[in-house]
Amino acid sequence: MNVVAALRLNMTNVDDFGGGHGERYRAALDMAAYADGCGFSVVNCEEHHGSGTGWLPAPLLMAAAVGACTARMRVSIGALLVPLYEPVRLAEDLAVLDNLCGGRLTVVAGIGYRPEEYAALGRDFRRRGRLMDEALEIMFAAWRGETVGRGEQRLRVTPRPFTAPHPQLLIAGMSAAAARRAAKFGLPLSLPMAMPEVEELYYAELQRCGTAGFVHKPEPGSKLTLLHHDPDAAWQRYAPHILTEIREYASWKRDGVPRPHDTDTDTGSVDAVRAHGYLEILTPEQLRDQIACGRTEILMNPLIGGLPLDAGWASLRLLGEVLAQAGVEATPVAG
Q: Side by side, which strands form the sheet with 224-227?
């Protein structure tokens, strides 16, 4: 059955300074290993810096650990904030990571939209587009075996990536600039939601540049999913954790930057959180019915906002049972 089940590991917690992160990181790896054995197609690691909830700041480390404890799923980093890295070192790290994952690595390269992340890491937010282009050019040259570096001192990046000519790479974005960049480099475009004008521009730019690619986007109405035999009871218990993530995400909103699940609605009550659309809690039977009616994507974050580990494991195991009963096997994603 053609269903893509994805495990999201962004590691948000109730309070970044409240402790308990080590136990949750170890649980995340155990969850990834479990998902790898029961039909999941991909595990996704994210990147944000300076988060009040501990939102994952080190996706390369997390992806390496996940790659080492899994064997089937693709290991995705989305989005990797490429302009925040030194390009030669990033080319090396991704080449090693691609080898560690045996070619299962997917990188969704983004430039981000939070000036404070750039400022804290000593990067010029105003030059983020140019920094992205320069990094891509350097990494592609490195993976072709050319010598790269700054000034007279140059080196050849080793090892070569497992995947030829380079690790699977997509360009993330919501703008015309992102569409043009993806087409220029002949890379797929990853959209966080349906954006017909950006998608149309991308395909026009592919034709103009003489390159090839595709658009990867979630299915309509995509949201996070948790499973429980009593969703009403689960909402009462889980809502504060879900709200923790929603509120932090909302605090990053910037004028002129469209994002999925943005809302001006007060999400302070359980009913408001349920109506927000960021996440759903279904019974296993409801999800099985949706799969039978054609649902093709399931995205689960069993550690959302500091969700207790027992609750996260219960939801994940229920999804494993649904996938097994539906005969779902891992489906290749993003090409």
A: 215-216, 189-190, 168-172, 105-110, 74-81, 42-45, 4-9, 297-300, 224-227, 279-282
pLDDT digits (tens, 9 = 90+) for 10-63: 999 986 666 679 999 999 999 999 999 999 999 999 999 999 999 999 999 999
Higher pLDDT, 264 or 256: 256
User: Which amino acid is located at 4 in the chain?
Assistant: V
If you write DSSP's letter for every residue of 141-208 in order, what string do you get? Answer: HHHTT-EE-STT--EE--SPPSSSSSSEEEEE-SSHHHHHHHHHHT--EE-SS--HHHHHHHHHHHHH
- The three-state secondary structure class of 75 is strand
Q: Is residue 106 classed as helix, strand or coil in its secondary structure?
A: strand
Which tokens in the block code for residue 183? Answer: 């087409």
Tell me the residue type at 235.
W
b/e map 163-199, b = 16+ CB within 10 Å: beebbbbbbbbbbebbbbbbbbbebbbbbbeebeebe
pTM of the prediction? 0.94
Which of 221, 220, 272 minimizes the C-alpha distance to 246?
272
Beta bridge partners of 198: none
Per the rule left: phi > 0, alpha: psi between -120 and 50, beta: everything else, 11 is: left
Helix (H) or strand (E) holding 299: strand 297-300
Nearest to 60 by CA among 36, 8, 95, 19: 95
- At residue 42, what are phi and psi to the nearest 5 degrees? -155, 145
Within 10 A of 155 (CB to CB), how many other CB atoms are there?
11
